[in-house]
Amino acid sequence: MKRVIGYIILGIVLLGLIFTGVHFYKINQFKANSIKKYPYQYDGKFVYTMSFFSDTQEEGESYIFTKANKIEQVKMKNEHTIAYKEKRGKSILETTLDDKIGTQLELYLFIVKNNKASDVKMDFSMEGIRVTSNQIANLNFSLVSNKRINELTVNPPKNPKYAYFQVDTDEKTIIFKLTGKRDKQNYAKWNIFTEDGTLIKKVTAY
Fold this sequence. Notes:
Layout lengths: L1 H26 L2 E6 L4 E3 L6 E6 L7 E5 L4 E6 L4 E6 L5 E5 L2 H7 L1 E8 L4 E7 L2 E5 L6 E7 L3 H5 L11 E2 L6 E10 L5 E7 L4 E6 L2
Parallel strand pairs: 1-3
Antiparallel strand pairs: 2-5, 3-4, 4-7, 5-6, 6-9, 7-8, 8-11, 9-10, 10-13, 11-12, 13-14, 14-15
C-alpha cells in the first residue's frame, strides 16, 4: 500500500514538474520583428512575447506584447499606427512612444491590457492617441509619464507598478488628449473624448 501511495505521489510530482516546465518554456519564448517597410502585416506564429519596431529612416513607436499567443494578426499602416486581432486573448501591449511624440505628450509608455476584445487599433500623433475597438470596455489602459524614464530604463524594477483604468463606454473610438494641466505632484492630466468630442473621462499619467 505504501508503495502504491509512493507511486501516486511521484506521479503527481512529475506532472507538476511537466506543467511547470511547459509554463516556463512558454513565458520565455520571445520573437523580435524588425519592420523595414510600411504598410506592414504579420500573420505568422505568435509566441508569448513579441516585439515590433521600426527599422526605417522615420522614427516610430516600438511595441512589445506579452501573453501574445492568442493574437492572430498585427497590421501597421505607418510608423505611428498598430492594429491587432486576438481570439479571446488577454495580451498586454506596451507601446514606447517615439521621442518627438513622447516629448509632446509628456508620455513614455502607453499600455493596453486586453480582456478578450477581438480587435484593437491605435494611432499615435502629436495631438493625442486614438483607440478603436468594438469592445473598448474590455480594455485596461495605463498612461506612463515620461518622468519615469530613468526609473524604468536604468536598473528597472522586475515588476514596475502602473496605474490602470477602464473606460466604460459603448463607443467604438476614444481619443486621449493632454490637457496642459497638472496634479499636485506635477503629473500631467488627460481627457478622454468620444469621436464627436464628448468628454467621458479624466485621468492622470503616472
